[in-house]
Design a protein that fits this description.
Blueprint lengths: L6 H24 L6 E4 L1 H15 L4 E4 L14 H5 L4 E3 L4 H13 L4 E4 L10 H8 L2 H4 L9 E7 L14 H5 L5 E3 L4 H13 L4 E6 L8 E4 L11 E4 L4 E5 L3 H16 L3 E5 L2 E3 L3 H11 L2 E8 L4 H13 L8 E5 L9 H4 L3 H12 L2
Parallel strand pairs: 2-3, 2-4, 4-5, 5-7, 6-7, 10-11, 10-13, 13-14
Antiparallel strand pairs: 1-8, 6-12, 9-11
Length: 361
């Protein structure tokens, strides 16, 4: 078969192939889409999920800093005008108050969707999330709960966000039983997983990769649908190395898998964890038993990052199947830099070198 010498042509073919793979994965999860679909990027798919929720649940309310006019990333644009200022409204600049109010709303039986403007600013609400929301059901002996609480927050690096706008704090909350933590990789997943979080009867934290808000467009159903939580997705099957990540880093690992196949003849299995807590141990371990090698990559610092939990569990469960030490390719143990942020993030070249090291071990 003749090859196209045009680089742009090749790039277009790859993008189209990736899009078709995403559509097929989506169909496998929920079957044929019901009703019309619409081209949406990630932030628009989140708006669609919130719109569906407000339309179907008269108790649902959305609140946070600047959400009334659409929010910094426009995820709630138009919702106040459509549903009224009593259901979509601004709060004071107080994250502890936002989450505390959300707990109260959820305990009273309503559906609370709280927005923290950046994941970096979730820490003032840490006590409310960890000591109140996560433990409410347990300390009351299941007499009361705040399971109708979903906390949304833009998450991850953008290439220039520096120390206060690029953090990935999922590991802090993964240490806390009683929460569910979810991170999507694209528009289709964002809507389905967010609707699952809103419907789930446990408090959920939904981190949204901010660099992906406008990065890709997919055909997303206008009607509501859900994608199961705590279920990882195998995006590409392989036989030599298992690659695990979530959110933005999944797109890096898919590119790395193509590089490894082309340059090394190495077959990589790519897994999107999707839910950080409770995570899908079975899918990851089953893959590692097959491949004998595991690379985990995330943007957060390596020490104490969630890759360490995955590595520890796989080592315990799959020790006799491992052909090489488990590799973690993550951020450095420093605050996020500004102009050096591209050097800080675990790019495809760092991951590719880790694969070569594992194969040659």
């Amino acid at each position: 078969m003749a090859t196209c010498p045009n680089a742009e042509c090749t790039k277009t073919i790859k993008i189209f192939a990736f899009f078709m793979c995403e559509v097929l994965h989506f169909f496998n999860l929920i079957g044929s889409p019901k009703g019309p679909t619409q081209k949406m990027n990630l932030f628009q798919s989140i708006t669609s999920a919130l719109d569906n929720t407000l339309a179907s649940d008269p108790t649902a309310v959305i609140f946070g800093e600047d959400v009334a006019f659409g929010g910094v990333f426009r995820c709630t644009v138009g919702l106040r005008d459509k549903y009224g200022k009593d259901r979509v409204f601004n709060t004071p600049l107080c994250e502890q108050g936002i989450v505390g109010f959300g707990i109260g709303v959820a305990v009273a039986g309503a559906t609370a969707i709280a927005e923290i403007q950046f994941a970096d600013y979730i820490f003032p609400a840490f006590d409310q999330i960890v000591n109140e929301a996560a433990k409410y059901r347990y300390r009351s002996g299941n007499l009361f709960d705040c399971g109708n609480l979903t906390i949304r927050a833009p998450w991850g690096c953008v290439g220039h966000g520096a120390l206060y706008h690029s953090q990935s704090p999922e590991a802090f909350f993964a240490h806390c039983p009683g929460l569910k933590i979810v991170i999507p990789r694209g528009p289709i997943q964002a809507k389905g997983l967010l609707l699952s979080c809103i419907a789930d009867k446990n408090p959920c934290i939904f981190f949204e990769p901010k660099i992906l808000y406008r990065a890709a467009v997919e055909q997303v159903p206008e009607e509501p649908y859900t994608i199961p939580l705590s279920q990882a997705e195998i995006l590409q099957e392989g036989s030599d190395v298992t690659l695990v990540s979530w959110g933005t880093q999944i797109h890096v690992l898919k590119e790395v898998a193509s590089m490894a196949q082309e340059k090394l003849g190495v077959s990589c299995e790519v897994i999107d964890l999707q839910t950080i807590l409770p995570w899908d141990i079975e899918t990851v371990c089953k893959s590692v038993v097959k491949t004998g090698r595991l690379l985990i990559s995330h943007e957060a610092p390596v020490t104490g990052g969630f890759a360490a939990e995955i590595s520890s569990t796989v080592q315990e469960e799959c020790f006799l199947n491992l052909e090489a030490p488990i590799s973690r390719v993550c951020g450095y143990d420093t605050p996020f830099p500004h102009i050096f942020e591209p050097f800080y993030t675990p790019d495809k070249w760092k991951c590719f070198e880790a694969i070569k090291k594992m194969i040659n071990y």
